[in-house]
Specification:
By secondary structure, this protein is mainly α. The chain has 6 helices and 3 strands. The chain has a domain of 70 residues: Arc Repressor Mutant, subunit A, CATH 1.10.10.10.
Amino acid sequence: MDPFTALADPVRRALMQRLSRGAARVVDLTEGHGISRPAISRHLRVLGEAGLVDADDVGRERHYRLVPDALDPVRAWLDDVAPAGRPTAPPIPEHALDGLDLEVRRVGRNRRHTGTAPDTTATKETG
């Protein structure tokens, strides 16, 4: 199975997100999904057939983990279809700057109303 088919299912995408934080057992991966352990195991089997996850036997348990670089074909395809000249991710999202803009305007407005200059004095720590 190819990675695209395996990633088409939202449960498998959620499992991949969870495994991106580290290896986990089926019982750990079942939490929060509302489906049975056998169903999670079947999803993990599909991810394994696609080469996206691997399992290590630790005692009587199987610990699933992401396969390094398994998503390279997906990344390559995304790079191919991305519009030319468009960065894949901006260094700082625009919405993050909205709060800064609001704060700068608020401080400027307060200074105009109170007539105070910005505080440029540095404080010394004594110890």
